[in-house]
Amino acid sequence: RGLEGRMARAEPPAAIFERRVLRSAAEHHYLRVRLELPDGGARPSVAQFKQLVVSALRELHGEVGAALPVDVLTYEEKTLSAILRVISSGLVKLWSALTLLGFYQNRRCAFRVLQTSPFLLALSGNSRELVLD
């Protein structure tokens, strides 16, 4: 009986697993983009660049798309590069609108999405552009 008493301990309860799937918890997403104008010509100012982004959204997604809050955080007129901030739920709408835009002032153009991240700091450096001495 002494041996039975030691072996008859209560079994621990079976582990209960709960599956949790988290979509991006970040409020915003950031995109590093570049506008390509193959024929050169006048380069858009920051205001014209922002208007181009809004018109791309309007063209693909209508007035609802144009109302999507998008901020131009940085813009380099020399390279036509920018960092855009959009609410995470609007990332796909913005990306698709930029990708499908084909003209700026009746000239061919193309947006290239170079990087995207829910963290602004992740866009501060790009290992593909790293120059080693």
UniProtKB/TrEMBL annotation:
It holds the Pfam family RNase_P_Rpp14. One of its GO terms (biological process) is tRNA 5'-leader removal. GO terms for cellular component: multimeric ribonuclease P complex; nucleolus. It comes from the Eukaryota. GO terms for molecular function: ribonuclease P RNA binding. Keywords: tRNA processing. Belongs to the eukaryotic/archaeal RNase P protein component 2 family. This is RPP14 protein. It comes from Lophotis ruficrista. The gene is Rpp14.
